Amino acid sequence: MQEAAFFQLSTSTTLLLLFGFYGATFLLSLLIGKKKENVDGYMVSNNAVGFGLSAASMIATWIWAASFYASATSGYKYGLSGPIHYGLWGALMIMFIYPFGKRFRKLAPKAHTLAEVIQARHGTSSQLIMAGSNLIGSCISLMVNFTAAGALVSILSPLNFIQGVLIAGLGVLSYTLWSGFRASVMTDFAQLIAMILAAVVIIPIIFINAGGTDMLMTNMSNLTDQQSDFFSTKALLEQGAPYFVAVLAYAIGNQTIAQRLFAVREDLIKSTFLTATIGYGAVVIGLGMLGMLALFVGLVPANGNMNNIIPQMASTYLPPFAIALFFILVVGSLSSTADSDLSALSSIMMTDIYGKNLARGKPDPKRMLWWGRATMIVATMLGVVFASLRLDILVMLVFVGALWGAIVFPVIISFYWDRVTNKAFTTSVICAVALFTVSRFQLIPIEGAVAVFFEICASVGAGVVVGLMAFAFFNRKIAITVGVAVIVGSLPFTVGFLRDYAVLLSSLTAYGVSAMVCTAMSWRSNERFDFDLLAVRVTSFHTDENEAAPVKPAFRPAADPVPSNA
């Protein structure tokens, strides 16, 4: 039951705000609709989106429901350092992806999905692993955003959770279905402006009405020692480090990010992603402060559900007009990511399932569009159904990101090292997912020699994470040196200790195992891949003369020279 003290918008006001918001976005999408849709435009806007739209779309997509609810949960659980551990690491991961993104675009400038490029590099099995992980991740993301919509509506209006989920699902589908990615990018720009304006008004009002600095000083005693410590070890091990590892995987494994990477003009990748880094960090850290304020004032989440923290704070400390602004703020944030998820799912089904497999490299553009739109409808239905489970958003976010950690090293290294084979890619991912599952869900007792084994794998994983970040901005020698130093330096601390932190242990294990298996198998390979083949195999769909080449990867004899762009 909701507490009667919470202010609620009337049913008519709530419906007016929802239908007004989705009606406006739908009308905006009509302005860019085309009678004869181009499949490349539907998926990546023909790889030619400009800086303003790209940066805004990137920020709006990365600021999703979890940016509100999970960031607030982090602030509520971990106090002063909670919002930093969520917002800062998420922002850094946007910056981290652009050097690798430039490499992907250089090798395959006409790509639609990362799985499509993986197929051209390795073959069908590796492509389906990549596409499958993206399908699962985007479906979960869609579910999370619809869950946020239900929580918002049920707290701030007389409508119930399911009604909120249904309205959000149908609203997002209505304006995304016809124009796909182009509609997502165009509406992202408008949604971002609305979100920023609302945040600038809302956050200061809540802070002042909650008591301002005097309230902070008075209620500091309500915090535990760890919550009042800006350098909290508990926050780092339970939130900061697992989330840092998770969002690294999101940056590589999430098709919504890859789609924008392939859509923006190639010369604008760096400026777009650096701008998005700053914009995301500023907004999300501010929003996370609302959870920290809830901790200070002693707020108890309604029904014990952490997803209710932000709606409760808004209901308690905002005047009616600001609650309406807050309502639009959250609806805009979750919608901007939900439409990106629908676009990502449709692109994967159009390109990787139909275009490269069912159609055997000779797709019919009209049928591709049918696949894409049908996927959006089915995904919306599944998102609405699974949203009724009301799972904890922060837990789901870290779980999916950690699972994606199994593919990060094999994906990145495949575009730099010509020895990596399809067998090495596939085997490393399967092994990493299997051991991640064992350690994450404690399928066997993690103690004794078994615990030591997983802790050693996790130490390697820590070295891989830091090494990859160094590799993004420096050369290979520096990256290897930094990675090895982290492995050696962390072993004395992880062995005997990390077994008590299952989330972090399993996340790092996924990175470590995939890196070790992939490297060991590739090192023994005598094959050499010609990276110039990627641009030949990955082409636009809308021109008959540019049909993709056969999907089997071609290799050179080991004695052939490595191309200069490898």
Give your account of this protein's structure.
The protein starts with 10 loop residues before the first helix and ends in a 10-residue tail after the last strand. The protein has a two-stranded antiparallel ribbon with strand order 1-2. Helix content is 73%, strand content 1%. With 566 residues, it is mainly alpha-helical. It is globular. It is built from 22 helices and two strands. The longest helix is centred in the middle third of the chain and has 39 residues, at 320-358. Helix 15 (320-358) packs across helix 16 (365-387). It has helices spanning 11-30, 39-44, 51-62, 65-78, 82-107, 114-121, 124-156, 161-176, 181-209, 212-218, 233-253, 255-263, 269-297, 309-317, 320-358, 365-387, 393-414, 422-440, 448-473, 476-494, 502-523, 533-537; strands at residues 528-529, 555-556. The protein folds into two domains: 21-392, Sodium/glucose cotransporter (Up-down Bundle), CATH 1.20.1730.10; 417-535, no CATH class. One of its GO terms (cellular component) is plasma membrane. This is Sodium:proline symporter. Its main location: membrane. It is a multi-pass membrane protein. Belongs to the sodium:solute symporter (SSF) (TC 2.A.21) family.
